[in-house]
Each structure stands twice: as C-alpha cells, then as structure tokens.
Amino acid sequence: MPILVMKFGGTSVADLDRIRNAAQKVRREVDRGYDVIVIVSAMSGKTNELVGWVNQTSPLFDAREYDAVVSSGENVTAGLMALTLQEMDIPARSWQGWQVPLKTSSAHSAARILDIPRANIDQKFAEGMKVAVVAGFQGISEEGRITTLGRGGSDTTAVAFAAAFAAERCDIYTDVDGIYTTDPRITKKARKLEKIAFEEMLELASLGAKVLQTRSVELAMRYKVRLRVLSSFEETDEASGTLVCDEEEIMESKVVSGVAYSRDEAKLTLLSVADRPGIAAAIFTPLSQAGINVDMIVQNVSADGRTDMTFSCPVDQVLRAEKAMNEARARGEINFDELAQDTEVCKVSVVGIGMRSHAGVAAKMFEALKAENINIKVISTSEIKISVLIDRKYMELAVQALHDAFGLDKAA
Ligand code: ADP
Ligand code: ASP
Ligand code: MG
Q1: Could you tell me if 228 and 159 are in contact, meaning their C-beta atoms sit under 8 angstroms apart?
Q2: In 10 A of CB 38, how many CB atoms?
Q3: Residue 214 and residue 145: Cα distance in Å, rounded?
Q4: Which CATH superfamily is domain 259-405 in?
Q5: Distance 322 CA to ligand 1 centre (A)
Q6: Is 74 labeled as ligand-binding?
Q7: Order of strands, edge to edge, in the sheet holding 146-148?
Q8: How many whole angstroms separate alpha carbon 76 and alpha carbon 67?
Q9: What tens digit of pLDDT does each residue of 226-242 get?
Q10: Torsions phi, psi of 301, nearest 5?
Q11: Which CATH number is 3-175's, of 3.20.20.10, 3.30.1130.10, 3.40.1160.10, 3.90.700.10?
C-alpha cells in the first residue's frame, strides 16, 4: 500500500470536534487506498502552558526534565486521535516517540532525529492496521531519556517519517491554507504561493516564519520529500495548499519572494571588552556551551584596546546568556564593564533566491524603513536574505512596508 503522512498542528487538534474533523480527512485518504501515518501536535496552547509551568518551577531548568514535561501534550492528542479513528471503524493505534522508537541525539529541547526504525509500524500495517498515530515533537535519546525537537518540532517528526517510510507525500495541515509571501496575520495583502523553493522556505523558516520548522524543510530537501502545507479547516484536494519543491519546478521569479519576522529577540552588548586575539572565542564558546542560539554579531571599532561586542539571541535565553557571561568573567576568561540589554527588539527579514543575481535589494529595504521612520539597530546579510533588528513596536509596520516596497501582493 502507498503510504501518506498527514500532520495536524495544535489548532487543528485544539478540541474533540477538531480532532474529529482531522480524523475525517484521514478517513478520506484511507478510502483512497493509503496506509496513513498521522503525526499530531499538542492541543493549541498546551505546550506553552507546559513550558510556563517548567519556568515557574525552575527558571534555569534541567533540560531533561523540561523535555519530560513539555512532550506530554502530544501524548494526549495521539491517544485521542487513535480513539476517534477507532470510533469511525478505522483500525488505528497510537505511538509515543519512544515506542516507535524515534531515536534522537541527547541535545535536550533541540534534539536531532538519528533514526526511525520501521519494523514496529510496518508489522502493524501488515496485520491490517490502517492508521499509525504518532505523537510529534518527541523522541528518545541513547541514554533512554525523553527528548523534544524544538518548538514547532512536529513538522520535523512528520517529514522524518515521510522520509523513513518513503511516503508518497507529507501533508502539513494547519490553520492557514498554504504558505504566503508573509504571515497572513500581519497583512491582508499577503499572497498565497502555489509553490515555493526549498531554499527560500528554509530561509523564511529559519528567520521566523513558523508555518514550518526549519529542520523539517532541511530534511525534506535532503530526502526529496514532497512537502505540502494546507488547511485543516477547509475542503482540500490534491491541488490544495502550497507545495515546497525544487527551484526548477517554479515559474514565478521575483527578486524578493517573502518577508519573515521573529518577534521575541534580544540585543545584548558587552561594553568595553579587551580587543585581543581570542576574545570572540572567549565570549561565544561559553554562550554556545550554555545552549544560547546567538544570531547576529557586531563588533565595534576599538578604541584604546577596548571594544563593544553586540549579539542577538531569543529573548527567553537572556537570563542564561547573562549567567554564562558573568561566569566567564568570574573565571577570568573575559572582562567587560557592563552587559547592556535591549529586550524590546525584533528581527525582520526579506528573502529571495533572486537576490543572488540582483543588486539594490538592501538599499530598497533601508529606504522603505526610512520612509516609516524606523531605526535599524543591527543588519546582517547572506546570499539570499537581508535581516534587520528594529524596535519590536514597529514590527507589523516594517513587515507591511517591506511587503509593499517589493510588490509582493502581485504575482511576478
Ligand atoms: P501549527 O500549530 O499548525 O503547527 P503554526 O502556528 O506553527 O501552526 O504555524 C502556522 C502559522 O504560521 C500561521 O497561523 C501563520 O500565522 C504563521 N505564518 C508565519 N509566516 C507564514 C507564511 N509565510 N505563510 C503562512 N503562514 C505563516
Ligand atoms: N507542540 C509543540 C510546540 O508547540 C510541537 C509542535 O506543535 O510542532 O512547539
Ligand atoms: Mg507549527
């Protein structure tokens, strides 16, 4: 039997009615002749609640216990989905990550998938089971501890299963009907794309477009998984949604194809650090060991042998970053006057593979922000993206201004 992977995100399984609605979509695919692997997220809001409980209990928590707690939301929806399917006379059962077993690295809260042995699920399909419901987002480490794959990780579970089981397609059902030029919740002018290139989606995801987790796009690209995003609330068919595919399959060619944002960023500046060989390593090694996802880095021009070093990271990692820097100072590895914090910033980025061969994108972006009187705090660029750090209160305005400036509401 051909295999199809169907993933339902948090809002798609937010209550029992929605689980029933998702199960109807599964039934349709079973009727079409597929064996289906369903990946479920926790009910919407559940994971946030669990993360909140962990933070309230232990602000600098043990990441293994964090994973034990926050993975639990998916266990509930997996069981409920299997029960719902059984009530519809569809042979189904649930699996938690460790039961598969979905084997991961031991990088707790950001674990990478190492292996998904097929034997258990294949055997059940051979015995007549039609649907395997798997709890997304979670796995088991070599040490036998429960791990999670990072926020939004159920997307990655889904793509990894599609690759492991050579599925015909991986359908990501969510609360929007496809991938847009920017988050449709920020501007009504956002335009749905029929197709998007892996490279562009990878960049948009890594810059904050949470419609797909970055790692899921990486895996789909590497293992050539046909990946589609579509609505769980509308009638859908083979042609619905947005397909993530190779650049060659796409007719549309705009210089900039999308705008992404990451709302909760922080800018930290170590004031007056000694400007000497090895200082960057002395700062960023302990930050990396503390699990801080450092993003942008700027070093000021030095004066009198001292300089300022600025970096950005997610706002919820500021406490850990501060601790790592104070400890490095206490060990005598670095010296600084003060760690200045700006926790009210966000990152806005424009992305497009056309940038490889077109100049002037940066200038156009900066002009558009200037026209709205938005001050840029940090800039970073790569081959196919330009990002700026700005005050969070201007985020929506900046996204709208850039969407307009690059004419993204119109097809190429
Ligand atoms: P799920 O719970 O189904 O995994 P997510 O909330 O993780 O859903 O992702 C879907 C959301 O991603 C949408 O509701 C939308 O607000 C947001 N989003 C951000 N950027 C985009 C984009 N470019 N296209 C579509 N949705 C986007
Ligand atoms: N429930 C997890 C989260 O909210 C995983 C997911 O939904 O993809 O991040
Ligand atoms: Mg998601």
Answers
A1: no
A2: 30
A3: 24
A4: VC0802-like (3.30.2130.10)
A5: 31
A6: yes
A7: 113-115, 103-104, 138-141, 146-148
A8: 15
A9: 999 999 999 999 899 99
A10: -65, 140
A11: 3.40.1160.10
Q: Which atom of ligand 2 is nearest to the CA of 41?
A: 7
Any atom of ligand 2 within 6 Å of the Cβ of 97? no
Q: Is the CB of 180 under 6 A from ligand 1?
A: yes
Name the H helices within 195-241. 198-206, 214-223
In DSSP terms, 173 is beta-bridged to 8, 230
* CA R_g for the chain: 23
Please tell me if the CB atom of residue 153 comes closer than 6 angstroms to any atom of ligand 1.
no
The model's pTM is: 0.94
User: Is 217 in a helix, a strand, or coil?
Assistant: helix
1-57 confidence digits (pLDDT tens): 899 999 999 999 999 999 999 999 999 999 999 999 999 999 999 999 999 999 999
Quote the distance between the C-alpha of residue 57 and its chain's center.
26
Mutate to test the pocket of ligand 2, among 12, 154, 161 (most ligand atoms within 8 A of CB): 154
182 Cβ closer than 6 Å to some ligand 1 atom: yes
- Which amino acid makes up residue 384? I
152 lines ligand 2 (CB under 6 A): yes
Q: Which of 92, 84, 86, 78 is nearest to 42 (CA)?
A: 78
- Report d(CA 406, CA 412) in Å as an integer: 11
DSSP class of 14: S
Amino acid at residue number 407: G
Ligand 2 atom 4: the closest Cα is on which residue? 47
Neighbouring-strand partners of residue 347 = 262, 389
